[in-house]
# Entry
Amino acid sequence: MSAPRKTTCQELVELITEYLEGTLPSDDLVRFQEYLDLCSGCRIYVEQLRQVVETLGKLTEEEIPEKAKQELLRVFRDWKRTS
# Structure
């Protein structure tokens, strides 16, 4: 029988979208939550991201200033070229 897999901060970051959307498989969810109990930095990160998602989820496109939209589009276009 193999030892249980340990979670790392990097793994937590890779799973955070599924965690916040409630689609993380139950085994991964248990490990995720156990890791949050151990790592205060990850707890803070998850809470900050949860707040960002909640806040931005309420934002309509019309509420975003045109300058900000253009800057976001530029950043995403540049990101695709460099990744």
